Amino acid sequence: xSKNVYFHIDELGRDAITASAxxxxxxxxxxxxxxxxxxxxxxxxxxxxxxxxxxxxxxPMFLNDFKNIAREIPPIVILLTESVGRVVDQNNDKFTLxxxxxxxxxxxxxxxxxxxxxxxxxxxxxxxRIDKYYPSISEKFHVVxxxxxxxxxxxHKKINSSxxxxxxxxxxxxxxxxxxxxRRPVEAIxxxxxxxxxxxxxxxxxxxxxxxxxxxxxxxxLYMEAVDIQILLQLLLKLNNEGHEIHLKVHPRxxxxxxxxxxxxxxxxxxxxxxxxxxxxxxxxxDYVIGPSSTSFYDxxxxxxxxxxxxxxxxxxxxxxxxxxxxxxxxxxxxxxxDSIEEIISIVRTRSQNFSLSDEIKQxxxxxxxxxxxINSIDKLLDHCLExxxxxxVGRKTKYLNLIGFKVYGSFFNYVMKFHRIIKNRTEQGSTxxxxxxxxxxxxxxxx
Length: 448
What we know:
Blueprint: E1 4-8, H1 12-28, E2 32-36, H2 38-43, E3 54-57, E4 76-79, H3 93-101, H4 103-106, H5 111-115, E5 116-121, H6 124-133, E6 141-143, E7 167-171, H7 185-193, E8 200-203, E9 210-212, H8 218-242, E10 245-249, H9 256-265, E11 270-272, H10 279-282, E12 288-291, H11 296-303, E13 306-309, H12 341-350, H13 359-369, H14 377-387, H15 396-424, H16 437-445
Parallel strand pairs: 1-2, 1-3, 3-4, 4-5, 5-6, 7-10, 7-12, 10-11, 12-13
Antiparallel strand pairs: 8-9
């Protein structure tokens, strides 16, 4: 019987392309990849773990859903879904370690990390921190590259053949003001301000080690989001007047319907991306991608599409930025950051086709994403997974019955969640997607 591998897809629009590429690579080696999501991992996986020979999760904390963590289970592999920008900032070792190992470990509870057989990191920056501070577990960590930068996921840039106007991509980042679960912004302010206690990312009371919260406070974040919306709307209107072809991609944790309504109301010539389209597919054929500081700028660089940051257009914005925010990430120092909307308009009018990676950007990508070797990241991560010592000792029949039970039990929860959303009038988006037949087929279709 072939090996069964469980792969947790945390956000459909972000992680489905990795799942699709990994499934193709698994198929080439006679391995059966089974998709999972938050519903399956939280409600189903622990009961039918022995359906699988390898379980791939996005972070150790998901093992919290295994009620009896001490029992024997198949090998657990952690493949991070976000691992660039401020997480690997040169001057923030503690935050990097916290982001890789999770809060319980940093506070002295090692159960989840102990249970993990292997961590697969994107670049050497994170590995260096582990080697330095936790050498006793460093053998668990391997650099495989950025999985979404694999050759299977990213095509070469399609040249815009139009001789007149640039094709412009605009990205949003307003998850607090425009929450996809429709939570009110005031809730975030109340939550962050209703206590006099110091806010920590972790606080190890035994060792005395701690890390103060590295997030912007809610009031500052909401100010920046409001400013960014103002800039985005002005750009939309002016680029429309200039006759540019505009493509808008909404942040995965935003309510996309708000933007749908705005485009319709003002009759704008904007192509609104479907919420689950992979960034690597959306960016093809664009000349520029414009928006606030974003980890998607790494993907733009790989795709050969020039990113433009709007951070400096409103001068007071920087006052509200935490020093460890994405805006101060290593890559952002090398991204074009105009002082005005007029300057952006002037740049895109020229429609330069000469964007190329500087040596500085290449060095950052190498450190954080294993560039240029990241084009083989999927094969490398699968190589490491298949090298793990087999611990699933159940018989073929038991394994098969576990897999059937996993699928049946998972389908039951799918129907329950679907019915619940109909009653609550909620749509799926981002991490709330369900593994329906339609969504599985969509994931399969992302990589030829």
